[in-house]
Amino acid sequence: MILIVDDDPSVTASLSLLLKQAGHASTSSASPEEALHALAERPIALVLQDMNFSRRTSGEEGLALLARIRELRPGLPVILMTAWGSIPLAVEGIKRGASDFVTKPWTREQLLLSIRTALGLAQAGGSAAASDLPSREDLDASWDFGPLVGEDPGLLRVLEIAGRVAATDASVLVTGESGTGKELVAEAIHRNSARRAGPFVKVNLGGIAATLFESEMFGHVRGAFTDARQDRKGRFELADGGTIFLDEIGELDAGSQVKLLRVLQDRTYEVLGSSVTRSVDVRVISATNRDLAEQVEKGAFREDLLYRVNLIVLRLPPLRARPADIALLARHFLRRLGQTYGRDELQLTPRAVSWLQSLPWPGNVRQLGQALERTVLMTPRPALDVEDFAAATALDARARERDPLPAVGAMTLDEIESGMVRKALRHHAGNLTRAAESLGLSRAALYRRLEKYGLDS
Question: 141-315 adopts what CATH topology?
Answer without folding.
Answer: Rossmann fold (3.40.50)
